[in-house]
């Protein structure tokens, strides 16, 4: 669910860093600790500057997580029930 929420927020916000900040309860800790940036609060909202998204939080990796959760159970179920007489 978190991977799906992350992808939807990224599409809506247009920025992977901003989407990660919106999904956390503590944007300052996320920005400074996880992303290595500084949190600047403006009238438009909080913005994480000088941040870099680690590879494990990238869009491609999140899509990979989703595909694993979809494909692995289907393949396992196919092989388990392939020769079973139901």
Task: Report what the structure shows.
This protein is mainly alpha-helical and 86 residues long. The chain has four helices and two strands. Helix 2 (16-22) packs across helix 3. It starts with a helix and ends in a 5-residue tail after the last helix. The model has no long low-confidence stretch (mean pLDDT 82).
Keyphrases for this structure?
2 strands; elongated; 4 helices; 86 residues; 58% helix; 12% strand; two-stranded antiparallel sheet; single chain; mainly alpha
pLDDT averaged over residues? 82
CA-to-CA gap between the ends? 32 Å
Structural class by sheet pairing and helices: mainly alpha
Q: Give the low-pLDDT segments.
A: none
How many E strands?
Answer: 2
What proportion of the residues form beta strands (DSSP E)?
A: 5-15%
Question: So what's the overall shape?
Answer: elongated
* Alpha carbon gyration radius: 18 Å
Helicity range: 55-70%
The domain tally reads 1
Order of strands, widest sheet:
1-2
Series of secondary-structure elements, N-terminal to C-terminal:
HHHEEH
Largest beta-sheet details? 2 strands, antiparallel
């Amino acid at each position: 669910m978190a991977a799906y929420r992350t992808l939807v927020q990224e599409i809506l916000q247009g920025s992977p860093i901003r989407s990660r900040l919106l999904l956390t309860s503590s944007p300052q800790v996320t920005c400074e600790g996880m992303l290595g940036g500084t949190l600047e609060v403006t009238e438009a909202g909080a913005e994480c500057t000088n941040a870099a998204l680690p590879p494990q939080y990238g869009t491609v990796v999140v899509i990979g997580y989703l595909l694993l959760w979809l494909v692995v159970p289907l393949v396992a179920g196919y092989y388990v029930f392939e020769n079973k007489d139901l």
